């Protein structure tokens, strides 16, 4: 009986020792966007007191699947790969994750393409299960300013003249070759896993063809880094995209769970 009580206490202790970090930008009409995509359009429809009895509010929104913090389903660039509703849940929940910090390189070159060397700095990646790699360029600080974030002033709908960092084709090839059995997703804190100057979206083509999904406009990676015991430590990610039949992508809640932290609530 005593033994049982001790075990119970231990499990409660453990679950209260995690810190949650929300890696999701809040969606609004001001949300930054990739040109060519339908912008997020939020309409407050009803907010009223019904006969003075009770309050009732309800809204509506229109959006591209590829706005805000979102997941690119493999089908987005590969007609033989999964649509968003087909991605197995075990590739979305409780996934071991790692942040690769490329801020220094991106500060010197806003069109920086992440190299194989940048990845090798973090090897060996000793994960036996599924995992996600998140690239931290530092671009999230520009998120609220469309021209800074996209790297161009023009507001037109063509994708020309975009400037922001992304993965190199060689890095994408390397990840697939080395890790495609276990790597389920690649994330970044910019508008696209391909750099802004990309014309053919090769990184999308390479990863998505191998059923590795993309996470774009990821927020708050700096907060996670600060909370980790060391910058190369692993942590858990929960990735929860809206389940749209035949979806090529979807807005997505992403939460990092850092174990062995006293939880004082959610950190933004
Ligand atoms: C935004 O949505 C509202 C209502 O759903 C619609 O009337 C309006 O035309 C939309 N605006 C744009 C710019 O698409
Ligand atoms: C968002 O933008 C749409 C279209 O321009 C507009 O109809 C709507 O009222 C805006 N919503 C808010 C909350 O500002
Ligand atoms: C994908 O596209 C290729 C080329 O058009 C076609 O041959 C193939 O049947 C398509 N596969 C599926 C599953 O739609
Ligand atoms: C965005 O940044 C540019 C360049 O720093 C600045 O000129 C512009 O005023 C900013 N726009 C907003 C909406 O803050
Ligand atoms: C959580 O609260 C404790 C006790 O109030 C405090 O010592 C600790 O610094 C806080 N941690 C965070 C991450 O805010
Ligand atoms: Zn996308």
CATH architecture: 3-Layer(bba) Sandwich
CATH topology (level 3) name:
Glucose Oxidase, domain 1
Helix content: 10-25%
CATH homologous group name: Putative cyclase
Strand order of the largest sheet: 4-10-9-7-5-11-12
- Oligomeric state as shown: single chain
Strand percentage, roughly?
25-35%
Poorly predicted parts: 4-15, 263-268
Tell me the name of the CATH class. Answer: Alpha Beta
Family: Belongs to the Cyclase 1 superfamily.
Keywords: Signal
Signal peptide: 1-18
Organism: Didymodactylos carnosus
Q: Which helices and strands appear, and what pairs or packs with what?
A:
Blueprint: H1 2-15, E1 18-22, E2 41-50, E3 54-62, E4 70-72, E5 95-101, H2 103-108, E6 113-114, H3 116-120, E7 131-136, H4 146-150, E8 166-167, H5 169-179, E9 183-188, H6 202-209, E10 213-216, H7 221-227, E11 235-241, E12 249-259
Parallel strand pairs: 5-7, 6-8, 7-9, 9-10
Antiparallel strand pairs: 1-12, 2-3, 4-10, 4-12, 5-11, 11-12
Helix pairs in contact: 5-6
Bound molecules: 2-acetamido-2-deoxy-beta-D-glucopyranose (5 copies) and zinc ion (ZN).
